[in-house]
Amino acid sequence: MDTINEMDINTDENAAGTSHLNEPVEEVSETEKLQTELQEQKDKYLRLMAEFDNFRRRTAKERLDLIQTAGKDVIVSLLDVLDDCDRAEKQLATSDDIALQKEGIQLVFNKLRSTLQAKGIKAMESIETDFDVEKHEAITEIPAPTEALKGKVMDEIVKGYYLNDKLIRFAKVVVGK
Hints:
Layout: H1 2-10, H2 26-69, H3 72-94, H4 98-118, E1 121-123, E2 136-142, E3 153-158, E4 161-163, E5 166-169, E6 171-176
Parallel strand pairs: 2-6
Antiparallel strand pairs: 1-4, 3-6, 4-5
């Protein structure tokens, strides 16, 4: 009975046997799995960085091209006006009829204005409007002839312009005080 009791004392039902030593340890396979995932994520990251770098270079090149050719449309449309200016210059050299020369030059001016208007340029109307620091630049002040003209634009030295309703040049004006 002593041998049976000794066996009972050393026996544990819940203790695992030695067979688990022969099986692969799960932690090693879990580590390998994590290393594989890490390598895949690093690869994805490197590919994404390379793709982003290519995108950045491509957009920078496209932006540079756009900046260099942005005014091409306007320039091409103004070439017709330049041709008219050349013809008017030849006409001025060969003709002495002042009325005909004035008419020809006025046609060139009108064509220039209509071409710019077609591209979105609009002249600002300033005379006899209230002085506005957001769109006017006061060159000087003069005494207003009437009380109603105080604080209003009396004269326009340089016209202001809008491009598609956005102010691109302030009007230089004389203000009544």
